Protein: Adenosylhomocysteinase
Amino acid sequence: MSDIADASLAYEGTKRIEWADRSMPVLRQIRERFAVDRPLDGLKIAACMHVTTETANLIRTLQAGGASVALAASNPLSTQDDTAAALAHEYGAEVFARSGIDREGYYRHIHQALETGPDLVLDDGCDLVNTLHTDRSDLIGTVKGGCEETTTGVIRLHQMALEGALRFPMVAVNDTDTKHMFDNRYGTGQSTLDGIIRATNTLLAGKTVVIAGFGYCGRGLAERARGLGARVVVTEIDPVKALDAALQGFGVEPMAEAAAHGDVFITVTGNRDVVTAEHFAVMKDGAILANSGHFDVEIDVRGLGDLAVEVHRDSRPLADEYVLSDGRRLVLLAEGRLVNLTAAEGHPAAVMDMSFADQALTCAWLAKEHQNLEPALHDVPKEIDTEVAGLKLASMAIGIDTLTPDQEEYLHSWRIGS
Structure:
C-alpha cells in the first residue's frame, strides 16, 4: 500500500509526466522495446530516487519490461506530490513519498520499499543499499544486484567494496559518459542556477560566484555562471582539477580566502563540512549559500544556526536569512539540501533521458548477467553507453562518420606504420 500525500493530485501529475516524456525520446524507445522483449519479467525492483516526472518515466519503462516497482523518495524536499500520486494511482507503482517528510518518515519509506523483497535495487545516494546492509540484511539473499545514480553514492559504495562489506553487485551508472558528462555537467549546471535564481531573484551578472568542487557538476556550474556574467572562483582539494579550472580561466582559491569576497557559494563536492563557521565569520552581508551535492552536509547548517541570533524563515520561499550578532545576514537556500531539486524542478527531462536510459538498460543487463558478477562495484558495459549516445544523436537528427574497413584495420594493427 502506497504512502503519498494526496491521491487527488494524480491527474495533474499524469499531465506533467507526459509532458516530460516528450523530451525523453531515448527512454521512450527503450520502453517500447521493453514492452516487446520483457527483459525484467517477474522481477521486483525497489528504488530510492527523487520522485520527479523524469523518474516516473523511468519507472514506467521498468514496468513495461515486466518489473513491479516500489519507489521511496531519496530527498523529501524534492518529492513532487502530484508525481507520486500519478505513479501510485495511474501507473500502478508502489510509492512511499511525501514532500517535506521528516527523517524518521524518510527511513520508514525506505523500509517499506524494501519490504517488497526486491530482486534489483536502484539507489540515489546509497541510503537504500546502506539500509539493506545494516538494518535489513535479512533481505539481501534475494537481491541480484543494483544501480547507483550519484557521485555521492558511488563514493560510499567504493568504500563498502574496499572494506569487503558489499554483498551483491552494484553498477556505477553515475560513472558512464552519457551520465556524468551530460547529466552532471549540463543538468546540474543549468538546474542549480535555475534554483538559485528562483529562490532569490538575484542577478548573477557582476557577482562573484564561489563553486566548491570542480568535478563534472562544478565544471557545468562554472561554465554557466560565467555565461551569465558572473566572476567565478573555484575551490578544490585535487591539484589536477584545480589546475584544470585555472587553465579554463577561473579563479582558484582556498575556501578560507574566497569566503571573504564571494557573493554566492555553491557546494558540489560529495563531502561534508565544506563551508563552516570559520567561513561564515568572514562572509559579506547578504551572501547566498546553496548546496547541489547530494546530502545536506556540505554546508554546516547546524553551525550556522549556532552563530545566528535570529533566523527569518522563508523571507522568500526556500530562502532563510540567518542574522549574525554583528547584523550581517547570510541567506541559506533550501535548508542546505539540493537546491536544484528543492527550489527548482531538477534537471531538464532532455538530459535525464540519457541517465535513465542508462539505468533501464543496465537493469536489463543485470537481470541477465548477475550470476556472472562478483559482489563489487562494476562499470556500465561500454556498449550500453555507446547505444544510449547513438540513440540520443538519432533523436536530434545528428549523423556522425563511421570507420572504413581500412581505418578499422589500421586502429587494430601494430604492424602498419606511417
